[in-house]
Amino acid sequence: MAGIIEEDHISMKNAFKTNGLDGLKQMIVDNRDKWESIPVRIAVTGNSGVGKSSFINAFLGLKPNAPGAAAVGITETTMQVKAYPHPMNENFVLYDLPGVGTQLFPRESYLEKVDFQKYDFFVILSATRFTENDAWLGHKVKLLQKKFFFVRTKIDSDMENEKEDFGEDFNRERSLSKIRADAQDNLRKFQEQC
Ligand SMILES: Nc1nc2c(ncn2[C@@H]2O[C@H](COP(=O)(O)OP(=O)(O)OP(=O)(O)O)[C@@H](O)[C@H]2O)c(=O)[nH]1
Ligand SMILES: [Mg+2]
């Protein structure tokens, strides 16, 4: 059966043999929901100020000044790792990390300070420009043989800047495509270097 591992295939057969169609149905439902009971630790990382804490608040549906929201600010804000379990499933935990490459969190000690290897998955946030730190973080995730999503933030201010810079010639779709193409290009180069 395509998409079903041998082990599941055997369990499904056994469930059917023992409890008929109801048994099989129950097994499928249990399997469908089992991901919910597996803890997933997701690190939100990137340069300082790119919007990591804001991203977590947005993800959890919290306003920045709401109780329990991650602190956000216009200066270096997050100074220690903090866990944010999702209200609908406490096994799904987002970790707000300090920004990499500041005086307090230089690259040399970053991985150790944030316990980088303990996460299952990473979200690398980046604003305005693809930086050396973005590539460095991606590389470190790859070394752990884990995966990351790359998220470009502050698109709203980019669009405002473009409007101001180009006035009548401003074209939102064109500007967005440019940002997308730049991110893809940088990620491709990064893949080639790894
Ligand atoms: N315009 C705009 N501002 C944003 C966005 N995301 C975050 N900000 C602002 O950027 C500033 C920094 O946001 P934070 O969420 O504190 O950034 P951070 O990456 O957690 O920063 P550190 O904890 O210092 O590493 C705040 O003033 C936010 O309001 C965005 O998508 N658009
Ligand atoms: Mg922060």
Automatic annotation (TrEMBL):
The keyword Hydrolase applies. InterPro entries: G_IRG_dom, Immunity-related_GTPase-like, IRG, P-loop_NTPase. Keywords: GTP-binding, Hydrolase, Nucleotide-binding. It comes from the Eukaryota. The keyword Transport does not apply. Residues 38-194 form the IRG-type G domain. Belongs to the TRAFAC class dynamin-like GTPase superfamily. IRG family. This is TGTP2-like protein. It comes from Mya arenaria.
